[in-house]
């Protein structure tokens, strides 16, 4: 599957609502479009798929211009190598799971087509449901069908519109795991629209924040979260750093896993997977304790040499958010203003960052 | 029992269904999905045959098909006989009169398809035509079946317009509904009764089929 090049998007329109959005999704990335409902996120997806035509638009993928209002180029929706998972899944009520996949695969030699159907059914764990129609499927099963159908044509770009909004919390978490697993099996560029930052923190590599029809921040998830620089998030959610780490070693005797993200080394409760497995971790600012001397006799696994980068208000007059550098990685720590004074925390000061192993939320 | 009239009615009904459905589907699709000004007016125009007295409708068709009208003249030049009081004229009138019976059930069925499904079809690689064939047609099937049966049954029963445009020429324009009227006028109540019963049975049968079909379609989803 080739052609999963960089996706370039530029949209400007005055009506039906004003919008001016520009971003690039690197090849193989999961780029989240994050923002409140009604900010225009879904319209961006529809424009990428060729279902919406903006006044002034450029949509290009791997150097091919799908939409370019400057030249009048417009590749019709059905010719774009795009898979779309709609918010309500939009499964065809008159077709079985197998027929939905066959329809999306399109014309191929019968043997090849059947093999492709079987592969998709296996990928989405739908083998036993192949003969069912959507009405006989649960919400989670419908979502897996929608995903398999979107992947049927080997798309270069996969578009997900609030893929977990229609399911309850418990199912959402397991669907996120499935998507994360799937991401490792299939190489494509994913654009994910969500208003739930959990989706961003657990699945996305890149983030584009959209507010009232324009981009208010863009960058990697690790960079934006570690700088606490996601607009619209402060107050709504505890500051937390989300970044990718990989398994360096497994310690079955102690039931621990050693993870590394750049210079950041962490011991966490056992995460399954061989050495090299990539794991998304989140470390909340409340979970990071600061110390000036190396403590002893604590139930603590991770004592990291850090340096203070900045101290900013912590959302409450008694609190401060301390930005830390651990080698080339960054952490956030929420402490009292009193502690900032007592430890002499100022820009450039050395400090020890203490992170409980159980405070590291690993998502694989 | 006037067998010629019965076969003529059935021939007229089937021809009307076969010719009208494709045209009505295109119109229904336009009304269901199209975005244009004056939609209310267009819908009212198509619904007109439902409420207009058949004699009024018949009168206008008679004028439009007549030898003085361009349509009547063009037809006569092409086929060598006048449009009015001919089977072809009757068929043309039948197509126009049945427009709402064919369009409305299909329009409702198409409008009930969630817009996301048509978008999803496009994103599954289906061209606009393939989307109609693989998604819209199957999902609108109950509406299409209803349209077909309503059109057929209504054609069998149409009286006023047929009388105005076709008259009562045996084998050419005398339908079963006209034949019943003729028999009653001739005090032949036995024949009229048999034919009325045949018409009643046919209509009941047709409606029964539609309802069963529609219910089966709904259950299939």
Q: Would you write up a description of this structure?
A:
The complex is a heterodimer of chains A (364) and B (221). Helix content of chain A is 23%, strand content 37%. Chain A has 364 residues and is α+β, with helices and mostly antiparallel strands. The longest helix of chain A has 17 residues, at 169-185. The two termini of chain A are 24 Å apart. In chain A, 41% of the residues are buried. With 221 residues, chain B is an all-alpha fold. Chain B has one domain (3-220): MetI-like (MetI-like fold). The chains are: A alpha+beta (364), B mainly alpha (221). The A-B interface holds A 46, 49-51, 76-80, 82-84, 86, 88, 90-94, 103-104, 106, 133, 135, 149-150, 152-153 and B 114, 116-117, 119-128, 130-131, 134-135, 138-139, 220-221.
Radius of gyration of chain A, rounded? 23 Å
Q: What's the structural domain tally of chain A? A: 2
Unreliable segments of 5+ consecutive residues of chain B: none
The helix count of chain A comes to: 8
> What share of the residues of chain B does DSSP label as strand, in percent?
under 5%
Terminal CA distance of chain B: 44 Å
What name does the CATH topology of the largest domain in chain A carry?
Answer: Rossmann fold
Q: In the CATH classification, which architecture of chain B applies?
A: Orthogonal Bundle
Parts with pLDDT < 50 across at least 5 consecutive residues of chain A? none
Structural class of chain A: alpha+beta
> Averaging pLDDT over every residue of chain B, what do you get?
90
Shape of chain A: globular
């Amino acid at each position: 599957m080739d052609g999963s090049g960089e996706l370039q998007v530029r949209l400007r329109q005055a009506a039906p609502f004003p919008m001016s959005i520009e971003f690039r999704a690197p090849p193989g990335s999961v780029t989240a479009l994050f923002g409140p409902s009604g900010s225009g996120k879904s319209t961006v997806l529809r424009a990428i798929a060729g279902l919406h035509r903006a006044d002034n638009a450029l949509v290009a993928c791997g150097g091919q211009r799908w939409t370019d209002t400057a030249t009048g180029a417009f590749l019709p929706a059905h010719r774009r190598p795009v898979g779309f998972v709609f918010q309500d899944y939009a499964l065809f009520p008159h077709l079985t799971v197998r027929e939905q996949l066959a329809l999306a695969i399109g014309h191929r030699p019968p043997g090849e087509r059947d093999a492709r159907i079987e592969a998709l059914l296996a990928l989405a764990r739908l083998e036993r449901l192949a003969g069912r129609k959507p009405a006989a499927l649960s919400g989670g099963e419908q979502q897996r069908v929608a995903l398999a159908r979107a992947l049927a044509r080997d798309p270069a770009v996969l578009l997900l519109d609030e893929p977990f909004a229609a399911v309850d919390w418990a199912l959402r978490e397991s669907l996120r795991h499935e998507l994360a697993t799937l991401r490792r099996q299939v190489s494509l560029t994913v654009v994910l629209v969500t208003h739930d930052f959990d989706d961003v923190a657990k699945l996305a590599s890149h983030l584009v924040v959209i507010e009232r029809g324009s981009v208010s921040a863009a960058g990697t998830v690790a960079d934006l979260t570690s700088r606490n620089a996601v607009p619209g998030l402060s107050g709504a959610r505890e500051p937390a750093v989300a970044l990718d780490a990989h398994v360096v070693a497994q310690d079955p005797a102690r039931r621990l896993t050693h993870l590394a993200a750049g210079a950041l080394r962490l011991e966490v409760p056992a995460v399954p997977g061989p050495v090299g497995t990539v794991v998304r971790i989140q470390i909340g600012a409340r979970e990071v304790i600061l110390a000036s001397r190396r403590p002893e006799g604590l139930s603590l696994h991770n004592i990291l040499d850090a340096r203070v980068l900045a101290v900013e208000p912590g959302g409450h007059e008694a609190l401060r958010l301390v930005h830390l550098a651990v080698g080339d990685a960054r952490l956030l720590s929420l402490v009292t203003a009193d502690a900032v004074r007592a430890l002499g925390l100022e820009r450039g000061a050395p400090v020890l960052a203490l992170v409980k192993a159980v405070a590291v939320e690993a998502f694989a | 029992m006037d067998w010629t009239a019965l076969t003529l009615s059935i021939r007229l009904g089937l021809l009307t269904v076969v010719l009208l459905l494709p045209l009505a589907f295109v119109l229904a699709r336009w009304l269901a999905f199209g975005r244009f000004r004056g939609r209310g007016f267009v819908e009212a125009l198509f619904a007109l045959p439902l409420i207009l007295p058949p004699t009024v409708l018949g009168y206008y068709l008679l004028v439009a098909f007549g030898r003085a009208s361009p349509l009547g003249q063009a037809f006569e030049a092409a086929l060598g006989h006048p449009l009015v009081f001919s089977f072809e004229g009757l068929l043309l009138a039948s197509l126009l009169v049945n427009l709402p019976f064919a369009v409305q059930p299909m329009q409702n069925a198409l409008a009930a398809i969630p817009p996301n499904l048509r978008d999803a079809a496009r994103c599954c690689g289906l061209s606009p035509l393939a989307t109609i064939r693989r998604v819209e047609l199957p999902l609108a099937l109950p509406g299409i079946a209803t349209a077909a049966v309503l059109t057929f049954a209504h054609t069998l029963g149409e009286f006023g317009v047929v009388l105005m445009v076709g008259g009562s020429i045996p084998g050419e324009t005398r339908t079963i509904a006209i034949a019943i009227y003729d028999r009653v006028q001739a005090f032949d109540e036995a024949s009229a009764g048999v034919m009325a019963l045949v018409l009643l049975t046919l209509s009941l049968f047709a409606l029964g089929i539609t309802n069963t079909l529609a219910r089966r379609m709904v259950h299939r989803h």
